[in-house]
TrEMBL record:
Residues 20-293 form the Protein kinase domain. It catalyses: L-threonyl-[protein] + ATP = O-phospho-L-threonyl-[protein] + ADP + H(+); L-seryl-[protein] + ATP = O-phospho-L-seryl-[protein] + ADP + H(+). It holds the Pfam family Pkinase. The gene is STK16. InterPro entries: Kinase-like_dom_sf (IPR011009), Prot_kinase_dom (IPR000719), Ser/Thr-specific_kinases (IPR052239), Ser/Thr_kinase_AS (IPR008271). It is an enzyme of class 2 (transferase). Coiled coil: none annotated. Its EC number is 2.7.11.1. It comes from the Eukaryota. The keyword DNA-binding does not apply. It comes from Electrophorus electricus. This is non-specific serine/threonine protein kinase.
Length: 306
């Protein structure tokens, strides 16, 4: 990271013939870095995601992420402002320029609430969750699945409008598995790309002849709803204790009682988090239920600030 963009406080890069100034580091992962940059022309802040492409496969995956962004133009899916493939210090990198969302991720909001021993009001949960569902419906309607839906991959604008981000794990919604070799390939891919405590049960032990489809996202969506209600994912503690998440997801999700939320919201959660993917609802059904609950809630967003 030391030799990347932070040689000096005003080091600049060019993407699509426009200059951007480095401000500071934001995040760092296994194969990517995120920096805060400022547009020289418009003065706006952007998040620059730099993906290290170690080989042709890495470049292909980065190109696929760019293409996923170009497929979707929706208020609940993070847009791509520009991109470039560059060679820097002997390394190939893909640069994805994304709008900077200062409020941060849904997970950061949940952490703040937990630190304050607070909670998220039901109206606010429904408002955020509805936007997540609307973004996911667009993805599913185009025949794709997100595959790594979780609170850290949902950004929140100031008005609590959620933005689905990190489209790097997206692929075709329907995958036909033909034989044990294909099953193991998909299982290994899921182990690398789908966060364990939000991963659908069918991805832990992929059957030799089956269909993997967008219902994997519905399970993850349920985990996100649970996290908003309980301020932690349903399998976070299982994972942290070193117990088997693969075994834990085979049982119906347990909603801690007493629960402060309505019976309708609890029923929705239980309806989504069904172990058998064929028994899970599709995103249109989930969205209809959320809108019905918003109606009974009086339409309040209750978007209180943290």
């Amino acid at each position: 990271m030391g030799q990347s963009l932070c040689v000096c406080s005003r080091s600049a890069i060019t993407i699509d013939s426009k200059r951007y100034y480095f401000i500071q580091k934001l995040d760092e992962g296994g194969f990517s870095y995120v920096d805060l940059v400022e547009g020289a022309q418009d003065g706006r802040f952007y998040a620059l995601k730099r993906i290290l492409c170690h080989d042709s496969e890495g470049r292909r995956e980065a190109q696929a992420e760019v293409e996923m962004h170009h497929l979707f133009h929706h208020p609940n899916i993070l847009s791509l402002s520009g991109h470039a493939f560059v060679e820097r210090n002997g390394r190939n990198e893909a640069w994805l320029l994304l709008p900077y969302v200062s409020k941060g991720s849904l997970w950061s909001i949940l952490e703040k609430l937990r630190d304050k021993s607070s909670f998220m009001p039901e109206g606010r949960i429904l408002h955020i969750f509805c936007g997540i569902c609307e973004g996911l419906k667009v993805i599913h309607d185009r025949g794709y699945a997100h595959r790594d839906l979780k609170p850290t991959n949902v950004l929140l604008e100031e008005d609590d409008r959620p933005l689905l981000m990190d489209l790097g794990s997206m692929n075709k919604a329907r995958i036909e598995v033909r034989g044990s070799r294909e099953a193991m390939t998909i299982q290994d891919w899921a182990a690398q790309r789908c966060t364990i405590s939000y991963r659908a049960p069918e991805l832990f032990s992929v059957e030799s002849h089956c269909i993997i489809d967008e219902k994997t996202d519905i399970w993850s969506l349920g985990c996100v709803l649970y996290s908003m209600m309980m301020l932690e994912g349903p399998y976070d503690v299982v994972f942290q204790k070193g117990d088997s998440v693969a075994l834990a997801v085979q049982n119906p999700v347990a909603i801690p009682q007493p629960c402060r939320y309505s019976e309708g919201l609890q029923t929705l959660l239980s309806s989504i988090m069904v172990t058998n993917p064929q028994e899970r609802p599709d995103i249109s059904w989930v969205l209809d239920q959320v809108r019905n609950l918003q109606g009974t809630d009086g339409g309040a967003t209750d978007a209180s600030r943290v």
